[in-house]
Each structure stands twice: as C-alpha cells, then as structure tokens.
Design brief:
Layout (H helix, E strand, L loop, with lengths): L2 H4 L5 H10 L1 E5 L4 E3 L7 E7 L1 E7 L5 E8 L5 H9 L6 E4 L3 E7 L3 H7 L1 H27 L2 H16 L3 E3 L2 H7 L4 H13 L3 E4 L2 E4 L3
Antiparallel strand pairs: 1-7, 2-6, 3-7, 4-5, 4-6, 8-10, 9-10
C-alpha cells in the first residue's frame, strides 16, 4: 500500500520529502524494535504489520500499553527526538513489520516546513495519550476480570479478526498477573459465551 493511502492527511510535498529522507525497514515476527534505555535514531511510520509497546519491570515482567499498526506512528520517538531522551518502553513486532524510518535529525525541519506533519504529530500525541488514559483508568478503577475483558477487546480491535493467537502466559505477562489466574478468568468468560478457548488461541464470540 502506498504512503498516501495509509496517511491521507499528508499532502504530496510531504510525501515526497518523507520518501526522500526516509528508508524502508523490515522486522521479523517477535523482533525487538526498541529497548528500554536506548536512544531513538529515527521515528517509524508503520506501513504493514503490528507493533506491541509495553513497559518492562526490573524482574522482566511486562505491562502492555498499546499497539501500532499500518497508518500510525510512535509518539514517544517524536517526543524523545525533541528532548534527546532515551526510551522508557519496549517495542516488539507482533507480526512481520514494514515501516518507513525517518531520521530524527529531520524532525525540526518537518515541523517547520510541513503543516501536515505538524498536525499529524499533534494528533499522534493526542491519540496515544487517550489510549494511555484508558490503561490507567483500567488499572486504577477496575477489577482484574474487567481489565482482562478490556484487554481482549483492545487486542481484537488492534489486530483485526475474531481470533487471537496468544497463550495464557502472554496475557498474564501483559496484565502483570499469573497464568493460573488468567486461565480461570478466561474460562469464566468462556462460560459466559463471550469467547471460545482453544490451544494458544481465543475466539471472540460477543465481547
């Protein structure tokens, strides 16, 4: 799919500039794109595939934040570019990913010379901030069974389709819980006919 199709808010002048300064990069399924403490060298415009962003604790535990898919970009890389800061999250390819890598050295010029890019960056900040507010709301005000249902809904929406290829342990990692507890809650959702469980897969019935 061409860049204007994925990012219709970009005018032709901006598209031409991004293609001139950027380069296509590809990542394999489960490959790490960014590690905690690493400096950003570029900002990624996702063209194909899905990227998972998450926080990792000192003991290696994970907490899922949100997904990036085709037509989206990493807000954190844009923020860190302006402040020359390291990443506080990790990013991993959920599926094979193709992206356009924009060197951070060009960010100031893009912001100054292309109004479409300026508004795109603001909208990216806003949408990611709203997603994080939803995550905080779930952590602060909801029980684990509600968090799990919210998590599954987001996964289905982000990845598309009615079936998730995921293990109970992976869900437990994302929600900072135990596999046994997640399995029990998933079986409860299955008994309510909201999902169907099979080996390493969950099918959405009426979440």
């Amino acid at each position: 799919m061409k860049l204007p199709d994925l990012f219709p808010q970009f005018d032709q002048a901006l598209v031409d500039e991004l293609l001139r300064i950027g380069r296509i990069v590809e990542f394999n399924d489960d490959e790490i794109l960014m590690r905690t403490g690493q400096y950003f060298k570029y900002s990624l415009l996702i063209l194909e595939g899905t990227v998972k962003l998450y926080r990792q604790g000192q003991q290696g535990e994970e907490f899922f934040l949100y997904h990036l898919s085709g037509g989206s970009a990493c807000a954190l890389s844009m923020i860190c570019a302006a402040r020359n800061e390291t990443s506080e999250i990790q990013a991993r390819a959920v599926t094979p990913v193709k992206a356009l890598a924009i060197p951070l050295a060009h960010m100031d010029n893009l912001m100054k010379n292309h109004r479409n890019w300026y508004y795109f960056v603001l909208e990216t900040y806003r949408s990611r901030f709203e997603e994080l507010l939803q995550v905080v709301d779930q952590i602060a005000f909801h029980a684990l069974d509600e968090k799990l249902e919210f998590y599954l809904k987001r996964q289905f929406e982000s990845l598309g389709g009615d079936t998730l290829s995921v293990t109970h342990q992976e869900i437990a990692n994302d929600l900072n819980s135990s596999r046994e507890v997640i399995t029990r809650l998933l079986k409860k959702l299955e008994a309510q006919q909201k999902i169907s469980l099979s080996r390493h897969a969950i099918t959405n019935r009426k979440l």
